[in-house]
Each structure stands twice: as structure tokens, then as C-alpha cells.
Design a protein that fits this description.
Length: 86
């Protein structure tokens, strides 16, 4: 399969999808989903990561950290699924 045939070039067939930052103009649904996720974990106006507990007063840094945490979780899930295959 060539890169042109892959709808999302970051996603290789058989691998978990990865979360990334939007290039160009972001989709309105992405903005709403990111804002909702970000605001869900605000404590006194500061984002607190639900996975590691680190605090991020700057929203942009919080979003980057959250992206990395989600991708790490997806990679871990892929490893679990790979071991579980017969």
C-alpha cells in the first residue's frame, strides 16, 4: 500500500491511530472536542492531567501534553492487543 492510498499517512494499516495537531485551519468539531476535554480537567483554572497528575497553566502546553498521553496510551493498547493475538 502506498502512502497515497493511506487516508491518514500517520496511521499504518494494522496499527492504532495517532492523535495529532491540526495542520492549517482546524475543523470546528476538533476545536469543540479539544476544548471540552481540556475544560473537563481544569482545577482552579489550571489543567491537571488525568493520567499523570501534572499541572499545566498554559493551555497550549496542556493540549500538547494531552496529545502525547493519548498517543502513549494508544501505543500501550496496541502492545497489549499484539500479545493477545494467537
Amino acid at each position: 500500500m502506498t502512502e497515497k492510498q493511506i487516508k491518514n499517512p500517520r496511521q499504518i494499516p494494522g496499527e492504532m491511530p495517532m492523535v495529532g495537531l491540526a495542520n492549517g485551519k482546524p475543523d470546528e468539531a476538533d476545536i469543540v472536542a479539544t476544548k471540552l476535554l481540556y475544560e473537563s480537567y481544569l482545577v482552579d483554572g489550571v489543567f491537571v492531567c488525568p493520567r499523570c497528575g501534572r499541572s499545566f497553566p498554559v493551555p497550549e502546553k496542556a493540549v500538547l501534553h494531552l496529545k502525547d498521553e493519548i498517543n502513549d496510551s494508544m501505543a500501550g493498547l496496541q502492545r497489549i492487543l499484539a500479545v493477545a493475538k494467537p
